[in-house]
Amino acid sequence: MKQLCRISLLLGLLCGWLQPEALAQREYYNWYFGNRAGISFLSGAAAPLPLGAPDLYRDVCSVSDSAGTLQFIAEGNRILNRNFQLMVGGQLGGPVYFGYEVMALPQPGRPGRYYVFTPKHWVDIGLTTNYPPPNLTYFVVDMRRQGGLGEVVARDSLIQLPQGTVTGNQGLAATDIAAVRHANGRDMWLIIKTDQQNYLSFLLNDTGVHPQPVITVNPVGRRLPMVNPGGLIKASSDGRRLACSFFCFLVDARGNFNGVRLPYQEVAEFDNRSGRIASAYIIPDTARYKLAPSRWSGGTGGLEFSPDGSRLYVDTLASREIWQYNLNAGSPAAVAASRVVVARPVAGAKQSGAGNNLQLGPDGRIYHASTLVNRVGRFESPNALGSATRYRDTALVLTTGAITLAGLPRATNDLNLLPVVVAGSGSISVQPACAGTAVQLSSSLSPFVTATAYAWNFGDPASGPLNTASGQAPAHQYQTAGIYTVTLIVTAAGGRQYSTTQTVQVRPRPVVDLGPDVRLCAGETQVLSPGPQPAGSTFRWQNGSTAAELTATTAGIYSVTVTSPSGCAATDELIVTQANCAGSPNVPDFTNLPNIITPNQDAQNECFVLKGLKASDWNIEIYNRWGRQVYRKAGYDNSWNATGQPEGVYYYLLHHAATGQQHKGWMEVSR
Known about the structure:
Protein name: Gliding motility-associated C-terminal domain-containing protein
InterPro entries: Ig-like_fold, PKD/Chitinase_dom, PKD_dom, PKD_dom_sf
Strand content: 35-45%
Organism: Hymenobacter duratus
Pfam families: CHU_C (PF13585), PKD_4 (PF18911)
Keywords: Signal
Radius of gyration: 41 Å
Number of helices: 1
């Protein structure tokens, strides 16, 4: 008996930070920005989109669903639907000072529901206009409304920022917003920095925004003079680092502003479990360059981390230069010493560099937008150092009529991309794993992760050393049905590990047993059965029959495949032979067949006669001593008398056409 199992399975798992319910892969794959400009990453490579929304501000978010279908475009003062028309309730309005910073992202655990955040700045408490105090304002978009075009269902929800003590600067938000994935892989942190040099981390989860932030008080321990609102803040894709870019006004000995600005960059180590800043430092060299207003319009134009978080890119001097820092260089002084100019974009207009004109894309490259041009630049290898980053000023030409405005769409730190994905065409629910069948797994990485090692544990200790494996796409065979936990640990360059576990239900194969091989006597039959099977099972015999049983009447190989209701299959086979069974009815008796004939025309023993058999039921073949066939006849008639053949020994083969039974013998021809 031979047992076979015929089923293949590709198992889909979720790895890294995200839980299954938070799966979102293409929510930032459509970028709309500038004046009717757009880029799509849906095909894998960046490609220009048809003309989009006109006159978008430098700060914009372009949000799609997990399949990559555009949902809406958000600015600091309005939200447009996918048709580039004002969404119902999308005129946000309200006082916004020093920019229209915005961040839009899906609410964890609430499909079709999105949050749009805008920090509102307050500069002078002496103003007579009744403006609200500094706050983080948010709006809720429900894409199930208005026939799928969306509607702002909750608006002007204010989270008042903690107040400072400096006259005229009572806790205003000094930066835009960084959205960082929580360590639980599901929730998000919304992070801003205030004029008091404090970091505020607001938690967004399936219940909404927690109004009480986690506050890290001035981790640098140094307070430069007035920080102008509109600074940039970015997070690395792994959520472990933050970078802020500011400039401050210098004052003279009398405390008056002298019109000179001092730019500086700050790097912080972020704990995405607690929301706190562990440590921070100002890159020393960035606080040395005193810039007149004509040299620095609006502050830093762009800030971005490399995909692996090891490099920091800073667009300075209204896009005249883009700097790169090696954050792995060591001390702050060593980081400062690592600064190198990696690009001098050929900008269309040397005007304000404020905005978000450096943005990491889903393809793992960093894109750069100049002002009033029909193209975007790109760093092809942003994890590299210096010129090896390969900056191309015209990496992508936009659709005719589209113009950049020195800003690219903002996104979450990981662009909602899974850092590690184990995927296939099947899933546990519709294509179960079956005992005794190899389960093929495969994994792929976000462009933000470079793997150095894969470690699999299949949760099957009984398999001994086969319970563990390495490599990107291993297979494992479970011999016993049950529930197993598969664990994958991916070690990334730099040492960080991403881990996931997933339960796998391995279902039993059918028990198929046709029994031992069968020996039939001539005229006998045998009913073959695979044994009791659960209701809903299907059968397939070797002759195409789908019945639960099959009657064997002739010799041959018989097999059946049984598929259980859960989709697992097993096969068994047996061999049926026929034999001479003495004393059995209808069993041919070959004992009376002659072994000599004498065809000498004496009317005695002239022909080879099948004595004791019905000759017409048998086919006959006769061969000479050299193996050459000399006679053949279907439905023999007892007529062969060796005509034309010499004397000697001849061999014959009898075959019963109905039963398949065969008999071999010999005879002598003597005259």
